[in-house]
Amino acid sequence: MVYITRRVTFSAAHRLHNPELSDEENRQIYGLCNNPMGHGHNYVVEVTVHGEPSLRDGMIIDLGELNDVIQDRIIKHVDHKFLNHQVDFLEGVIPTAENLSIKFWERLKDALPRGELYEIRVSESENNSAFYRGE
Amino acid sequence: MVYITRRVTFSAAHRLHNPELSDEENRQIYGLCNNPMGHGHNYVVEVTVHGEPSLRDGMIIDLGELNDVIQDRIIKHVDHKFLNHQVDFLEGVIPTAENLSIKFWERLKDALPRGELYEIRVSESENNSAFYRGE
Amino acid sequence: MVYITRRVTFSAAHRLHNPELSDEENRQIYGLCNNPMGHGHNYVVEVTVHGEPSLRDGMIIDLGELNDVIQDRIIKHVDHKFLNHQVDFLEGVIPTAENLSIKFWERLKDALPRGELYEIRVSESENNSAFYRGE
Amino acid sequence: MVYITRRVTFSAAHRLHNPELSDEENRQIYGLCNNPMGHGHNYVVEVTVHGEPSLRDGMIIDLGELNDVIQDRIIKHVDHKFLNHQVDFLEGVIPTAENLSIKFWERLKDALPRGELYEIRVSESENNSAFYRGE
Amino acid sequence: MVYITRRVTFSAAHRLHNPELSDEENRQIYGLCNNPMGHGHNYVVEVTVHGEPSLRDGMIIDLGELNDVIQDRIIKHVDHKFLNHQVDFLEGVIPTAENLSIKFWERLKDALPRGELYEIRVSESENNSAFYRGE
Amino acid sequence: MVYITRRVTFSAAHRLHNPELSDEENRQIYGLCNNPMGHGHNYVVEVTVHGEPSLRDGMIIDLGELNDVIQDRIIKHVDHKFLNHQVDFLEGVIPTAENLSIKFWERLKDALPRGELYEIRVSESENNSAFYRGE
């Protein structure tokens, strides 16, 4: 069992806001991150897949193919978007790093041509990140 | 003459858009960056000041004081904001990295307690940055 | 179960030295790191907490609150200090990265307002780090 | 149980190629990476060892000693080499990051003076890495 | 006058070798870097262009267009190649970082649709880089 | 004229303190950095040399030789030391990043076997650095 990680990036705007709470409650919980016009990040997504390297090509999954799947299932939907309103699979989701890691997992787990998804890490900044392992 | 650089970061949303052009022209020029709801970045700002280190304290400018000025004149106005609409000193400015570096320079050049401003570098991402030296 | 990581930094001096061994033994074990006047590092501390994101705010723990706890329980005690002599909770501890990760764990494990501590990683330099998971 | 990680780097050329397949098949599988003259990387190797810190020196393993073993067992054999043809222990191995992590594991697992090998991560570039834990 | 920098990467093999010197002289000058089968790097190229931001789009040069020119004039010729033998414009050039920065300058200086080339920096590794400004 | 940069690191303790001022004045100027037992950093030193690449070897200066000179003239004197008291050439110098960049320049400017010293940058942390060009 070997693990392989592909790192990709995208830029997006988001707003931390729960529409089921009052504006006052949202401001208390999220502070600056609740700005109605949003703020943004250069997100880093690290996708780790595990499996046994094939004898034929020495790979768990071709990193080019893995990249294509990540682009197709995740990046092209979120890059240069406002995450709260412009992404189908984030509809009704508060776009914290925690929730993004879960939603990105759901987008990828059945889409890999080879190997099995092990972890998705989403970094919002050099200091803040979240990761999910399907547990 | 010695140079000293302080690096600070902020997160913001922006949209590349010239309101004097048609929507069609804006889309042609800016592509994805023209998304009306905006996208965002973790911006890195590197401010370089030059001068002669004082004999009393060995500094051109105290890095803590320099940080305070940068926070006060720039960061608190742009952090967690939508740059096109929520920042007084960016009113009417297309918020490219080029233009941000010029505007940040104007905000700082007469505000330093010691030393002289030499350069401001604004990085939008690990691949894209602009810098201005008041030339 | 999702994991969230907050990265913080501090600068400190330390000396690798076991007072129960002779000076000669200390020099043999630690080499340059045994210099009686100490040397120093920009330490990086990465704290990982796990739990289930709340439906109310989409978070395991608010990253701002997590930062406050780390500052209060760890950073304000060690930043700009000589770790061997100026930190109560490191009294009698040889300040290797291994031991720092254990002691920082003890300082945080019962202090988190939400979530459960999963891992503390302490990096002394870009090449050397240690982590502890309470095992 | 504490974990300690040492990061080292080396530069090498390699070619992704399975000599048991036809040239055409190799080109289809590996694309540009199949270039007969090879291409190269600045590899980063992160070796993680776990164990209990000794009461005598506060360490699982001395990072200097760990570095010496990594240099002796791995780096001096692969640094500035063409990995497909100039490394005994890679003879007959397709030098993907996956396979390198397994082979480096085999070179180190019985060579550590203290502690137990936990993980070896091999990064080919800032976007691509593999790791192996002996599972 | 504002400056804008685009960072791109490529992976290649090379060998430091002057065919007009004896093998013995080459080994003395270049040591490990003279290995006949070559070694390799993840190269980082940072291209800086200067000019006045246009009033129409706020840019010196569109970063996407700049990227396209760099890919077309430089990267597609050197990526995943052996630099000594597979690159037309490096024929007869010892591929040190110094010489690469000069040759990449020549490839770009008349190819920019807008702005003027100011500097090309070529980094071979995290510790070694060269830059050229056409002086 | 081409420029080449070598990056090296060292770890040291220091204290910002001017012995000609009162303790009270020192505390006011330097705050936490005035701690009598010192604090420390992982310093990064970037040395830039310029000149014309030789036709014989394609180099301004061999990066290995440049590294040797930097180790010999600077690093071995400051690594794992307390900069205020254990370094001959820093005697009587307040060890700010500004002053270190000047003193390191003086140690190197006449010691290079080839090329001419252009700049020395000393980084104390990821946010703070100084550089000197002999102006």
Task: Record keyword descriptors for this entry.
homohexamer, 135 residues, alpha+beta, Tetrahydropterin Synthase, Chain A, four-stranded antiparallel β-sheet, 3 helices, elongated
Q: Overall pLDDT of chain A, averaged?
A: 97
Given helix and strand content, the structural type of chain A is alpha+beta
Number of strands of chain A: 4
The CATH level-2 architecture of chain A is identified as 2-Layer Sandwich
Specify the biggest β-sheet of chain A: 4 strands, antiparallel
Our estimate of the beta-strand percent of chain A is 25-35%
Give the C-level CATH assignment of chain A. Alpha Beta
Q: What is the overall shape of chain A?
A: elongated
Spatially, the strands of the biggest sheet of chain A line up as 1-2-3-4
Q: Oligomeric status of the shown chains?
A: homohexamer
Question: Biggest protein-protein interface?
Answer: A-B, 23 and 23 residues
Task: Provide an overview of this structure.
The structure is a homohexamer of 135-residue chains. With 135 residues, chain A is α+β, with helices and mostly antiparallel strands. Chain A has a single domain (2-132), classed as Tetrahydropterin Synthase, Chain A (2-Layer Sandwich), CATH 3.30.479. Helix content of chain A is 27%, strand content 29%. The first copy, chain A, is built from three helices and four strands; from the N terminus they run E-H-E-H-H-E-E. A four-stranded antiparallel beta sheet of chain A has the order 1-2-3-4, covered by helices on one side. The longest helix of chain A is centred in the middle third of the chain and has 16 residues, at 63-78. Chain A starts with a strand and ends with a strand. The model of chain A has no long low-confidence stretch (mean pLDDT 97). Chain A binds chain B through residues 9, 11-14, 32-33, 35, 37-42, 79-82, 85-86, 124-126, and chain B through 9, 11-14, 32-33, 35, 37-42, 79-82, 85-86, 124-126. Strand 1 (2-14) of chain A pairs antiparallel with strand 4 (128-132) of chain D.
